[in-house]
Specification:
11 strands, alpha+beta, 10 helices, eight-stranded antiparallel beta barrel, globular, 2 domains, Hypothetical Protein Pfu-838710-001
């Protein structure tokens, strides 16, 4: 959802989007069916070049903000984003944008925005790039209007490169819960998984080995058991997504077993919540069994060297069940927290 606010003469939006990861071959094969089943209109393809900036000490990253210049159709847009929060692949953050003449920062614009104290704009340098082809479209779900963005490309940090394959659903107007309805349709077409990791976080992780890569999730639901259980569901879902991302980069049997543990805990929590609030029933429990069975098979193959590190991402996304389960839990959570 883009809620526009005027701040010292500049535009600020509140961005709300649902992010999923997938495999490039699956996107290419499924794109025609995807656009057709979503009744997508105003379909466009654009190549986006994005340069992210920070100080040599990564002061912006440490302050949980991201600064970039995006080149699109010959135009340049300077953007400052706050970290906001992310649960179940749903990202909410503030965003400031300014048109600029070229791929050079205009530090004068940053003075008027929410800028980290003590960080000098004069010390900013290019840190990494995210470059990708974006297929965008508008879709409607009831009275809700959503922008679909399918991004396929790469992240570049110095000599290092990493693939980038994401599907994003952003609210233009309407109810946030409809994002999960659309995501379920997408998960029925091709294998996906929710993701709490932004493009900026992926760039820092690629470029700097010491960039923060630990799980964190605040839980504050004092004196309300129902909210406490829902908070635990959100925390364990986010931890599962964190482990899923971690296993795709540096897999271990321990990480895969931790993923199994999170799925078991989520199953128990959802059953507990049904006892508290029968109006929040969770359907499709067979997806839990499918997710656990898939991990069992992967653990066996990985432990006996039948699957190498480079093959793990494809195995994690080899079926639709895990992604569908995560999306359904996210949808359940969005209903419960309204």
């Amino acid at each position: 959802m883009r809620c526009w606010v005027c701040f010292c003469g500049f535009s600020m939006t509140k961005e709300i989007e649902l992010k999923m990861v997938t495999l490039p071959a699956d996107i290419e094969a499924a794109m025609p069916e995807l656009l057709e089943k979503l009744n997508a209109v105003d379909v466009k393809e654009t190549w986006l070049v994005n340069t992210y900036f920070d100080t040599p000490e990564m002061s912006l990253n440490k302050s949980c903000v991201a600064l970039r210049i995006r080149q699109k159709d010959g135009l340049f847009i300077q953007t400052l984003k706050t970290k906001g929060d992310s649960v179940a692949g749903l990202h909410r953050r503030g965003e400031w944008e300014w048109p600029v003449p070229d791929n050079k920062l205009d530090s004068a614009l940053l003075i008027s925005a929410v800028w980290p104290e003590g960080v000098s704009a004069n010390t900013l340098i290019p840190f990494f790039e995210t470059n990708f082809k974006r297929t965008s479209a508008i879709i409607e779900c009831g009275a809700t209007k959503i922008e679909l963005a399918v991004d396929c490309g790469y992240i570049a940090a110095g000599e290092k490169r990493a693939p980038l394959n994401e599907i994003e659903l952003e609210i233009i107007e309407g109810e946030v819960g409809h994002l999960f309805e659309v995501a379920e349709i997408i998960a029925g077409i091709l294998p996906v998984m929710l993701s709490d990791v932004s493009k900026a976080e992926q760039g820092y992780r690629l470029g700097v080995a010491t960039a923060e890569d630990e799980f964190s999730h605040e839980l504050n639901c004092e004196d309300d058991y129902k909210l406490y259980v829902e908070g635990l569901v959100g925390r364990n879902l986010s931890y599962w997504l964190y482990l899923f991302d971690l296993a795709g980069r540096r897999c271990s049997v321990r990480t895969l077993r931790k993923m199994q543990e999170r799925i078991v805990v989520l199953q128990e929590l959802l059953l507990t919540q049904e006892d508290i609030n029968s109006g929040l029933m969770f359907s499709c429990r067979e997806l839990f069994d499918a997710g656990l069975d898939g991990l069992d098979a992967l653990i066996g193959d990985f432990a006996h060297n039948r699957v190498g590190l480079s093959e793990v991402p494809a195995r994690l996304l080899s079926g639709k069940e895990a992604g569908m389960l995560a999306i359904k839990i996210g949808r359940w959570l969005s209903v419960g927290l309204r």
